[in-house]
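A further point concerns the way the authors explain their paired sequence and structure data. The central task, working out the structure tokens from the amino acid sequence alone, is never made concrete. I therefore recommend that a typical entry be quoted early in the introduction. An entry of this sort, consisting of the sequence and the corresponding backbone structure tokens, reads as follows:
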Amino acid sequence: MTMIKSNVKLDAKGLACPMPIVRTKKAMKELEAGQVLEVEATDKGSKADMKAWAESTGNDYLGTIEEGEVLKHYLRKSTNEESMENAFPHVANNAELEQRLQAGEPIVVLDVREAAEYAFNHIPNAVSIPLGELDKRMAELNNNETIYVVCRSGNRSDMAARKLTANGFSQVINVVPGMSSWSGRTDGLA
């Protein structure tokens, strides 16, 4: 049994379409931006429904784990900051990062998405430190290494890159657009 950390769990077992989505919509309104909702459902059609609903509302569909008859869907409420324009000046695109990884360059990939996002899909050997934990866990990083910061879209990584630079890290690069368009190798549950 796989354990994924979520902030709120919603029991939608035994409910047929459209009720899992109706309850999910209501539960998402109660969440704070960036929090993860776990929805347990037994309706087999709910997997496609959850993904489509999340995409249509701007929230993040992280993935689904099947445990017997129960489907555990994971969704992340998007933040207002994710619509901000990037401000960090040192930016690389996904292809540049992939090229450096394939070349075996001595770089660190820092993934600042939530733990559930990372669990479902991440770049191999990436260090997972969610943005909300970065202040407390910054000492886990070496400020002399080149750090490529990734998130889903480039916005949380932009904030993390600015935060790292303000704390003495000099070789920080924000990766845009990030995991939403990553086509390189990945590890995880997805």
